[in-house]
């Protein structure tokens, strides 16, 4: 069963259960149930849950806003100019993505827009942090709209949260009549405020992320030329060889100084030109040879593996071969032959670490280690070992999600902030120019741009989802 089909089945089952319970309670409790939902601002729809409240309206009281009126006005004026730049930049980014996604020679260009599908291209362990970060970014986005609206004298009917399919989001319900009475630049401030806040959030998270080594140093965390194990999955082949707190220094002869180099060292072992073995002559083989012939098909041994050479295959104790000279071919051996793990065994990796037995052997697919051993660039004797990774992961998600929300919402497409940003921008520049242009001409031009942008973003999103479906079918 494909990952995509499993996801569809789980999401469908969840919403079937939600709607079934909703219908059942409506039938059993009738008006009491409906009154409870209405009083608490809860709405249950086909694949959407929504919560609407007026509790936070006072948070943006006129007193707070007008006490800081000039500073807030300057803040959102900067946001308006940024929003204009972001609006046109977003169209160029989508056009670039659309064009180069069909150019086979450019493999990375189509990855500018990549949908994140929990359980498919997002590990299950990261679903909650990802959705939580998405919700926080959405709330900060909507807070920008609400604060800018309060500054311009536009009241708020309410705000709330909603969940569509599996993605959470936030919204604010502004007084549309008051919004229409604002001039063009006032509306531009309000409509660009969400994109502006996402940009500021992205920059702030990036600053925290890049300053982590300095910040964590004062919390008692240190960095060495190694990585520290924070967790080992129970199904890992090295579950009983490396432990939490173990430091890994190298994979084969490749030094591991951080998590990036850990991945690079593992992936480099797939390079056939870098495969390595050990020089073994007949006397050494007779000494290390196992009683079990693990070179036969279907035969395995807990401590021995099958080594292959130009002289044939031999089943020997793997760990004891490490004392012999390393080689890549027979020419590297003064005596004997160069023996390498048989293809049926996989790759042989030697991990140098800080546990009592300072060398761990692994035979198999290196990607298994990448996904079953969790590491950190930092270590501490007093604090939680997972804390640096948690902070780092959260900051990375904030940077990527806030940036994505800023670009996505700036697109002048239907039902996005960019739609209203474009209308206000056109009205503003025409008003500033002093020329008289018919309202129908402005409206038609705006419609054409919005239609083009909507089709462009739909094609890009569809193409990105198809790529994910093909990859994880």
Kindly describe this structure.
With 473 residues, the protein is α+β, with helices and mostly antiparallel strands. 50% of the residues lie in helices and 18% in strands. The chain is built from 14 helices and 15 strands. The protein has helices spanning 3-29, 31-39, 62-67, 69-100, 127-151, 176-180, 184-210, 212-217, 259-268, 282-288, 366-372, 387-410, 417-433, 439-471; strands at residues 42-44, 48-53, 156-164, 167-174, 222-232, 247-251, 254-255, 277-280, 304-309, 312-317, 326-327, 337-341, 347-353, 359-364, 373-379. The strands form three sheets. Strands 5, 6, 7, 13, 14 and 15 form a six-stranded antiparallel beta sheet that branches. β13 (347-353) and β14 form a beta hairpin. α4 packs across α14 (439-471) and α9 (259-268) runs antiparallel to α11 (366-372). It is elongated and about 95 Å long. The termini are close together.
Number of strands: 15
Mean pLDDT, all residues: 82
Largest sheet: 6 strands, antiparallel
Unreliable spans are 104-110
Distance between the termini: 9 Å
Kindly provide the radius of gyration, computed on alpha-carbon positions and rounded to a whole number of angstroms.
30 Å
Number of helices: 14
Structural class: alpha+beta
Question: Any idea what the shape is?
Answer: elongated
Fraction in helix: 40-55%
Tell me the strand percentage band.
15-25%
Give, in order, the helices and strands. Answer: HHEEHHHEEHHHEEEHEHEEEEEEHEHHH
